[in-house]
Amino acid sequence: MSQYTTLTTADGDLDPQFGLEGRVSVLIPGAKSTIAQCIVEGPDDNLYVTASIEPSNNIREFTPAVVCLHKNGAINEAFGNKGIVIQRFTPQLGVRMQQIHFLEDGTETRNHLCAVDNTNDINVLIRLHINGRLDETFGEKGLLKVILPAPLSDSPEQMPTSQASSDIGASGTSTVANGKIYLAKHVYMAGLIADIGIITRLNADGSLDLSFNKTGYVAVAHGYWANTTINDIFVQNGKITVCGSLYKRDTSQHYGMLARLNDDGTLDQTFAENGFALVPEATFDRLTQYAEDSILAAGSTLSPAQGVLACFTKEGQLDQKFNGGKILYQSDTERGAIRFHDVGIVQEKIIVAGKLIPNAGLHS
Which candidate, 97, 123, 122, 96, places its Cα nearest to that of 111? Predict the structure, then answer.
């Protein structure tokens, strides 16, 4: 089977200069079927498409792959094996591609493929040279399974080490900034009786960055009986902002959550209220820079589902320059419920992407 890529011109028509009338279909040798996960333009102006090769028998045992295309859609045969890299693991793991990042390491740019191992529910990193060759100086010959020590060392301001559990799951969320690799996980912490989001920071060589909370990882916790999830990580001006959700189990209250950390992993107490900005009955999925000192979060309300955009200053207050300092809610009661899952800014225009959940009798 093939993975399928399409480019359009500015007016929405297919770009005739890309592939065959704006479309490219890539056959991956030996693959029964593939799922394209993301597409990124690299610093070399090539297009990198990550994919997960579907297994023929075990639904969890996916194999990661990446394809490199020139800007015109032609396969870059100088990359990997005639434009394709397939990375199988021994023993076979269920690794599904999530994201691709480019990291400057000395004088060379390297590809970081961020994935989730569905079999063991952990984060997996693959590092390639820009030509597709495995960078064997990273992890174990180019491959790294991110497994934190147990018991976890907790955030020093919030909970004692003895209360942490090592029941860890991977979310797949990651980013690269200032030569560091950031990953999101969740962990059940028995002392808090809650599932807690964990941020891990790695050095460029894959080792834990011990300048970050003295351990390389930190819990984004909001107290007892309070579940936190992390859906995105944004690094700006020496601050680490994460977004997701907070659920207070003792009061059954849901919140969209932004939390901000200092570069050393401590909570930024100058941001909103003790480091947390909360929006009732919502969840946030994606962050993007809005201005030099403000950040835009996209998400949804819970019920009825509406798209949500909220812009926060560096102090964690709603930015008066965006929608008059108010949260923007987007609904379409005639057609159905709306959820925002992604946001970006192009030529001073905000573009959001998400899902329309149609009313009964309508098609999305």
Answer: 97
Model confidence pLDDT, tens digit, residues 166-191: 333 334 588 888 889 999 988 888 88
Q: Which residues contact 57 (CB under 8 A, 6 or more apart)?
A: none
Q: Note whether 68 and 48 are within 8 A (CB).
A: yes
**pLDDT (tens digit per residue) in 232-262:** 999 988 999 999 999 999 999 999 999 999 9
d(CA 305, CA 283) in angstroms, rounded, equals: 10
DSSP 54: P
Task: With CA atoms as reference, report the closest residue to 235 among 260, 210, 208.
Answer: 260
Query: pTM of the entire structure?
Result: 0.83
Peptide bond just before 91 cis, omega within 30 deg: yes
Cα–Cα distances (Å) from 286 to 13, 227, 230, 233, in that order, read 28, 19, 10, 8
> Which residues, listed in sequence order, are joined to residue 236 by a DSSP beta bridge?
239
CA–CA distance, 356 with 364 (Å, rounded to integer): 6
